[in-house]
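User: Design a sequence. Structure:
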């Protein structure tokens, strides 16, 4: 459906074809619209012109925004999320007048829908996270190898110390046995 619009990982409709902001579509098998800050701002303005999120309809928003390539499907989905965000914001305000709740819970959908989420390349973040995880695993593996070598050396040293103790015990036992045997023999010769 959008295959003609996609070139590389992301594609956008050239500005001369679109009135206003350009649409950015992902290269997924099912292309999704990436809501940029500019596009979301136009959406919010259109909703405000139409009397708010409850009165605005996707078709009216499409006409008001006037962005070529934007479909009813895109607008229905975005309007639904926008309404849910607004509703969550109302419920939060009624439940707690304390703004610290929103600060403690940054993942909350109660953040103002006018403030768009940062448009960060999620794929890049995932790659970086995987790279960091692989580096941590590599370091842990190195530490484990060092630990194994240290354990082998400690075991060998323990066997060496045990053999020294065993030899010292044998030598001491032999000396004690021969000296006590010699004393007994000496005492016997003196006694006669």
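Assistant: Done.
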């Amino acid at each position: 459906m959008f295959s003609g619009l996609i070139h590389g990982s992301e594609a956008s409709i050239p500005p001369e074809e679109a009135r206003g902001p350009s649409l950015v579509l992902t290269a997924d098998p099912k292309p999704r619209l990436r809501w940029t800050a500019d596009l979301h701002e136009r959406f919010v303005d259109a909703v405000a012109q139409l009397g708010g999120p409850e009165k605005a309809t996707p078709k009216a928003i499409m006409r008001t925004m006037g962005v070529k390539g934007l479909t009813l499907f895109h607008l229905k989905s975005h309007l639904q999320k926008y309404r849910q965000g607004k509703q969550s914001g109302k419920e939060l305000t009624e439940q707690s007048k304390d703004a610290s709740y929103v600060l403690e819970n940054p993942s909350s959908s109660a953040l103002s829908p006018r403030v768009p989420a940062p448009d960060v390349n999620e794929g890049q973040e995932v790659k970086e996270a995987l790279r960091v995880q692989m580096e941590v695993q590599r370091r842990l593996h190195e530490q484990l190898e060092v630990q194994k070598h240290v354990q082998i050396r400690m075991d060998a040293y323990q066997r060496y110390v045990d053999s020294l103790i065993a030899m010292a015990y044998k030598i001491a036992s032999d000396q004690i046995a021969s000296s006590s045997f010699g004393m007994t023999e000496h005492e016997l010769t003196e006694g006669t």
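The longest strand covers residues 10-12. The two ends are 123 Å apart (CA to CA).
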